[in-house]
UniProtKB/TrEMBL annotation:
This is DNA topoisomerase. Residues 1-178 form the DNA topoisomerase I eukaryotic-type domain. Residues 41-152 form a coiled coil. The active site is at Y164 (o-(3'-phospho-dna)-tyrosine intermediate).
Length: 206
């Protein structure tokens, strides 16, 4: 601390290359990135254990994973500027939510009317109930999307997801979500792991 000013860096003589050179002497191939990867992966695992609700649906699982990933991004200081299109995107989502709420309200009225009428086949009522459930699920998904975008407007999730997270943690977590089914599990697997890798690989080819 001798001769240092309050605004001076604490380890001003330390560089990434010199640190990695020293670590390489302790163990072949060891670099500073190993420690960041370990901390990031441990944080992801801890957050998934803490936030995951066993019976939550696809939309909630997606929000849970992104929140766990956000904790990692904050740990690694992966920030970004708010996208220029953010406000417009949020406005569009708000309009979609309003529209979906109207659809739900209309479907509820139609179902209520059907139940009051005599001689209506049970199958017709079942179809209407199924439609109402689907609309509610879509509305819930839209609300989660707008929450997710608001929470991550200044956080870059992609960097940690691609470079610092052990993909085995994500795969194991997805396989533990038994209530999702094969189709939804594969959808999330592609979104969380396969798609980011493809994007990075294709970017390197261009």
């Amino acid at each position: 601390m001798k001769d240092k000013k309050p605004e001076s860096d604490l380890f001003d003589r330390l560089t990434t290359s010199s640190l990695n050179k020293y670590l390489g002497k302790l163990m072949e191939g060891l670099t500073a990135k190993f420690f960041r990867t370990y901390n990031a992966s441990t944080t992801l695992q801890d957050q998934l254990n803490k936030l995951t609700e066993e019976k939550s649906n696809l939309h909630d699982k997606l929000l849970t994973y992104n929140r766990a990933n956000r904790a990692v991004a904050i740990l690694c200081n992966h920030q970004r500027s708010i996208p220029k299109t953010f406000n417009k995107t949020m406005e569009n989502l708000s309009e979609r939510i309003k529209s979906k709420k109207k659809e739900v309200k209309t479907c509820k009225k139609e179902l209520k009317t059907l139940k009051k009428e005599k001689g209506i086949p049970e199958q017709k009522i079942t179809v209407k109930k199924t439609k109402l459930k689907r609309l509610k699920d879509q509305l819930h998904g839209l609300k989660n999307i707008i929450t997710d975008k608001e929470e991550n407007k200044q956080i870059a999730l992609g960097t940690s997801k691609l470079n610092y997270l052990d993909p085995r943690i994500s795969v194991a977590w997805l396989l533990s979500c038994h209530n999702l089914g094969v189709v939804n599990t594969m959808f999330l697997l592609r979104k969380f792991i396969i798609k980011p890798i493809e994007k990075n690989f294709n970017g390197q080819l261009t």
